[in-house]
Amino acid sequence: MLYLDQLKQKYQLIIGYIGIITIGAGIVLIIPLISLFFYTDEVSQGIYFIIPSAVSIVLGILMSNRLKNRKVISLTVQDGGIIVVLSWIVAIIISSFPFTLSGMLNFTQAVFECTSGWTTTGLSVVDVTKAPKVFLLWRSIMQFFGGAGLAVVMLSTIIGPLGMGLYTAEARSDKLLPNIKKTTSLIMKIYSGYIIAGIILYVIAGMSIFDAINHSIAAVSTGGFSTKVNSIGEYKSPIIELITIILMILGTTNFAAHYLILKGKVKRFFRIGEVRFMFFLMSLSIPLLAFYTLRGLYTSLGRSFRIAIFEATSAISTTGFSTVTYTNWNDFGIFVMVILMIIGGGTGSTAGGLKLYRAYVLIKSLLWNIKGFLLPKYGVKENYVFRPDGKYYVKDNHLVELGNFLIMYVITYFIGVCIITLSGYPLRDAMFEIASSLSTVGLSVGVTSANVSGVVLWTESVLMLLGRLEFFVIFYTIAKVIKDTKLVLKK
Questions:
Q1: What's the alpha-carbon Rg for the chain, to the nearest Å?
Q2: Which helix (H) or strand (E) holds 359?
Q3: Three-state secondary structure call for residue 394
Q4: Exposed/middle/buried for 40, CB within 10 Å: 0-12, 13-18, 19+?
Q5: Given pLDDT bands bounded at 50, 70 and 90, which one contains residue 154?
Q6: pLDDT digits (tens, 9 = 90+) for 173-212
Q7: pLDDT at position 157
Q8: Transmembrane segments in this chain: where (predicted)?
C-alpha cells in the first residue's frame, strides 16, 4: 500500500509538472503575435493563436494545482521520461491548433508540421508562398524551443533534483556546469547568442530582417524550416550559403564543446573524437559528391564543390536546408546523403541522427578488437576516446548500450522504409525520406508534401518524435506507464 501511495503521489507531481509545461506552451503561442505589429494586414490571424493559448494556459493552471502542498518526492529518470514524452505530445497537439483553426491544414497535416517543428526536423507541408508571416514565425519559434529542449527549458529553474532526469530524457548528455539550472542557462545564452549573430550576418548579406530571423533560428536549431520555396537556394548567394554552413556546424556541435572554446581551450576542442570524426566525414563525402554526382550535372567544378559542401553539411548537421533539388542526383549521391543523415550530428547538440559520438566509438571498437588479436595473450590495453569533459575510458557495458541503440535505429529505419515502399514509393525515395525523418533532418526528394497520404505523414511524425527523444526514452516510458497502470488496477 505504501508503494501505491507513493506511486499516486508521483503521478500527481508528474501531472503538475506537465501542467506547467502546458502553461509554457500557451505562453509560447503568443510570441508570434509580435509580427502582427509589423504586418498589420494579418491582425485577423491573431485569434487562431489567442484561443488555443488561453485554453492551454487555463488547462495548465488546473493541472499544476496538483503541485500545491505536495511534499517533495524524489522522481527517477524514468519519471522524468514520462514528463518529457507526455509534454512533447501535449505541446505538439496544442501547437497544431492555429493551423487547423485557420483551415490552413487538416489535423494530420498540422500535427505533422508541429512535430517537424518541435523536433527540429524541417519537413513541411505548408505552402510558404501563401502562408501568413505569423505562421512562418510560429514554425521557427517551435524549432527554437524544440532545439533548446522543451521540458528542460521550461522546468529546469523549479524542479531541482529532477533536472538530470529531464536532461537525459531529452537526449542531452554532457553537463557544462555542476547543476542543471546553470547548465541550461548557459546553453540558452550560447544558443541565443549564435542566433542573434546569425541574424546580423544574414541582414548584412542582404536578407530581409524577417527572413534573417527565421533562417538563423532554423540554422542554429538545425531545424531547416525556410520562408522560401527553394530554401537557401532561393538567394543564389555564396555569402549567405557560407553563413548558413557556419551556423549549421555550430548548431550540430556539442554545447559542452562550445564551452571549451569560450574558455579558450581550443586545443581540447579539436581533440574531441566526434568533432574530428565530423570533419573527417565531411572531407571524405564532399569530394565524392562533387566528382561522382555533381560534376555530371554542372559544368563548373567550383559549382559542384560549392553545392557538395553545402548539402553534405546540411545532411550531417541534420539541418535540412538545401540549395538544389535531388531529383536529378544519381543513386551514389543519394546513398552518400542517406549515410550522412543516418550518422547525424553531435551529442548534446540540437542535431538528430545516430549521432557522431556513437558512430565514432563503434568504429573505434572495431579497430580495438582487431588490435586486440595482435596483442600478447595476457596484454592489457585500456581503450578511450576524447570527449568534451576529457579522456573517457570505454567499457564493455557502454559499447553494449551503443550497440543496442544502433540495432533499435536500424530496425525502426527498416520498418519505416517498408511502410513508405508499401505506400507506392520507390525504394530509393523511401530510404532517403525515412533517413531524413528518423534523423530529424528535413531534406526531401519530394515524397513529403501536402498531397501525400495520411499513412506517410503519421509514419514520419512518429519517426521524428522517436528520433528526437531517441527511442529508449519513449519505449521505457510506455513500459513504465503500462506497468504502473497494472499495479494500480490490481489493487
A1: 23
A2: helix 356-374
A3: coil
A4: exposed
A5: very low
A6: 555 544 566 777 777 888 899 999 999 999 999 999 999 9
A7: 42
A8: 12-39, 45-63, 75-97, 144-169, 190-210, 239-262, 274-294, 332-354, 399-422, 462-482
Distance of CA 62 to the CA centre of its chain: 30
CB neighbour burial string for 124-138, b if at least 16 within 10 angstroms, e if fewer? bbbebeebbbbbbbb
Mean pLDDT of the 139-154 span: 77
Give the mean pLDDT of 331-343: 97
Number of domains in the chain: 1
Residue type, 211: D
Helix (H, G, I), strand (E, B) or coil at 179: coil
At residue 161 the predicted structure's pLDDT band, cuts being 50, 70 and 90, is very low
Long-range contacts of 324-328 (CB under 8 A, 24+ apart): 324/233, 326/432, 326/443, 326/445, 327/445, 327/446, 328/297
Name residues whose C-beta falls within 8 Å of residue 44's C-beta, 6 or more positions apart in sequence: none
The cell for 236 is: 543564389
φ, ψ dihedrals at 299, nearest 5°: -70, -30
Nearest to residue 292, comparing CAs of 345, 318, 266, 331? 331
User: What is the number of H-type helices and E-type strands within the chain?
Assistant: 20, 2
Range of the domain at 274: 266-490
| pLDDT attached to residue 377 | 65
Tell me the percentage of the chain whose pLDDT exceeds 90.
Answer: 65
Closest by CA position to 166, among listed 324, 375, 13 = 13
User: 155 or 215: which carries more pLDDT confidence?
Assistant: 215
Residue 75 inside a domain? The answer is: no
Instruction: Answer yes or no: are the C-beta atoms of 118 and 464 closer than 8 Å.
Output: no
For the segment 50-91, what is each residue's pLDDT rounded down to a tens digit? 999 999 999 999 998 887 766 656 666 677 778 888 889 999
Closest CA to 339 of 230, 224, 441, 225: 441
Residue 233 in domain: no
Cell of 369: 578488437
Those residues whose C-beta lies under 8 Å from the C-beta of residue 186, and which sit 6 or more positions away, are 176, 177, 255, 259
Mean pLDDT throughout 456-480?
Answer: 88
Which amino acid, residue 196?
Answer: I
Q: Which of 361, 366, 393 is nearest to 380 (CA)?
A: 393
> Would you say residue 323 lies in a domain?
yes
CA–chain centroid gap for 428, Å, is: 24
Residue type, 389: D
Cell of 238: 555564396
DSSP string, 44-63: GGGHHHHHHHHHHHHHHHHH
Answer whether residue 48 is part of any domain. no
- Please count the residues of the chain: 491
